Amino acid sequence: MAIRERLSGNEAVAIAMRQINPDVMAAFPITPSTEIPQYFSTFVANGQVDTEFVPVESEHSAMSACVGSEAAGARTLTATSSCGLALMWEELYIAASCRLPIALACVNRALSGPININCDHSDSMGARDSGWIQIYSENNQEAYDNFVQAYRIAEHKDVRLPIMICQDGFITSHAVENINLLEDKEVKDFVGEYNPQEYLLNQEHSMAVGPYDIPAYYMEHKKQQATAMENAKQVILDVAAEFEKISGRKYGLFETYKLDDAECAIVIINSAAGTAKDAVDKLRAEGKKVGLLKIRVFRPFPAKEIAEALKNVKVLAVMDRCEGFSSQGGPLGAEVKSALYTAGSTAKVVDYIYGIGGRDVRVENIEEVYGALFDILATGNVGETYRYLSLRD
Amino acid sequence: MSSVDFINENINWKDITPGGEVYEGGTAFGFRTGDWRVSIPEYIVDKCKQCLLCTPVCPDSAIPVKDGKRADFDFDHCKGCGICAKVCPFGAIVMKKEEK
Amino acid sequence: MSNVLEIRWHGRGGQGAKTASLLLADVAFNTGKYVQGFPEYGPERMGAPITAYNRISNDPIRVHSNIYDPEYVVVVDETLLECVDVTNGLRKEGAIVINSAKTPDEIRPLLKGYEGRVYTIDARKISVAALGKYFPNSPMLAAIVKVTGIMDDESFLKEMEGSYKHKFASKPEVIEGNMQALRMSLQEVK
Q1: Is A207 within 8 Å of chain B by CB?
Q2: Residue ranges in chain C whose pLDDT is less than 70
Q3: Matching CATH topology for A3-247 and A254-388?
């Protein structure tokens, strides 16, 4: 039976963590993810979970503790944001290359500077090449659902990779909204027990984790890691199909909204996708053929599937809530354009930097983007392909 | 089969262990660092007082101890670094050029 | 979207405007609505002007922007009228509810020509009378519930009693005071 609730995104993730009842949480507080370890440590103090909570003195130590604990054989998680994730950088790569299925709740926030604590995706986008699976969430419901699915993906024998579940800082992390929760037992049964084949604390069978890799081995290990990431795509779909059976909620690699006959479309991530859906409905009511594609899984990047979904779109805007300083746009723009080029697409594509440092994104702003796309459609002239939305000129 | 037997530079990316995991303990024993030696320690038994200061400083655990007394060097693993000779207060370890 | 009720709160850090917006979301949620309650975050500290928002709807809410043309505005601290443009974007068919000892007619000249309905409630007087301390958020919550009519007085009071029992489980002595503040506010908002 679904439990009708109203929770902030942070509460929702903390509740998913309680229902999972992991072995270890190592965390250091940072705005706006602070509430997650805060709520969770209350669950620990109340005896609602069996988790060992490890308070550390920095995120560098948080991820180090996670690496040690996961290698020891304990199901482990953490939560962080922004500069906290940046301080974990070194260990993110260690966790991935050691093939440790740690789960991380990332509450997206700008990386300073200029000093800013508000939402954008520069933190997790910066970590996109660290070897972590990245799944993004439009609202509290998706953040919860994605977290419940996280370990089934990460711990799968064909995958064995760490996983990051992202949601927008403040915009969803601190907004109380309606949500449907699963029963504790449903989550427990769905997630199951963690039984790694090999682990450091196995007295019967000793092992070594994370040895020095000389040039003769490093590439072979990286190819293996890359293959695990490719494998994750199918596992994510399989886990989503099973999740649908218990929740009734359907998830894929991405979500399309009124895309089938759309001439102009946008690709977007996280909370602004909801705002953009309202813009799509408004424009559809005016008879305009617009649609959108919302990325759920950014790592592995579902390039072929995205190119296929966008094959009928004539003009596309890729929305990047993160600068890339490539002088061409942001990271999502680069990925989507690469996917389209490989598929032989002739769609005209522009990249918008939007909403960075917490700049609010309104329905009207997204309508403005579609308006610009229709201008391109009408004139055939793409103009500047690297644009800023809601910038004071 | 022991990891040390099958992890070698001919292994392909499909067969190599994930993350370079090594599925047994004490595998350093199979790696003969003694081959690296340029200088060799000589153990002068008559001068040794069995104080055992040399044993814990050896980076390769190449000074075996049995029944509270050290024995001669394990030359399969001694790299000839000379730390033991530096710490010995009694001149019971002397470094010499190794003739191979 | 037109079927979404949008409310904007203006307060000062520490006065409970954010908490009041979350309580309002709770109340509306308990009547079966879809809700949003969220603050606008910045480097605010105690006393700094802050803004919080509510959306209330019969349908799922997807939009995640701030609110620019609210139907209702609640001002938790009268002194904000001097430094914040509280009626900015406020629809004239809507209303503004202000914590003040003044009458609506006395307040209206401070509202930059706002043509809609103006309500005032002396939350300080009510809070001090009911609780012995100044916590304006309970009276302001009752006032906005009354003005918007999102639920009738009786169901609201019933909901809030449950909510306070949960919120103040460790301080049951403040429950009755808060309930009294709500009841007085429902009567006195004008």
Answers
A1: yes
A2: 1-2, 43-44
A3: yes
Q: Where are the domains of chain A?
A: 3-247, 254-388
3-state helix, strand, coil in chain B (%, to 5): 25, 15, 60
A368 — pLDDT class (breaks 50, 70, 90): very high
The pTM of this model reads: 0.94
May I ask the CATH architecture of the domain A254-388?
3-Layer(aba) Sandwich (3.40)
Q: Show the domains of chain C with their CATH numbers.
A: 5-188 (3.40.920.10)
Q: What is the mean pLDDT of residues A159-188?
A: 98
**Distance from the Cα of residue B87 to its chain's centroid:** 17
CB contact under 8 A, B23 and A210: no
Q: Which chain C residue has its CA at the smallest distance from A355's CA?
A: C65
Q: Answer whether C26 sits within 8 Å of A6, measured CB to CB.
A: yes
For B34-100, CATH gives 3.30.70.20
Residue-wise pLDDT tens digits, B17-54:
999 999 988 888 888 999 999 999 999 999 999 999 99
What CATH superfamily classification does A3-247 receive?
A: Thiamin diphosphate (ThDP)-binding fold, Pyr/PP domains (3.40.50.970)
- Segment A98-106 mean pLDDT: 98
Instruction: Tell me whether C62 touches chain A (CB under 8 Å).
Output: yes
CA A192 to chain C, closest CA, distance in angstroms equals: 32
**Domain locations in chain B as residue ranges:** 1-31, 34-100
> What's the half-sphere exposure (Cβ side, CA atoms, 13 Å) at C95?
16
Instruction: State the pairing for strand pair B93-97/B39-43.
Output: antiparallel
Mean pLDDT over the full length of chain B: 91
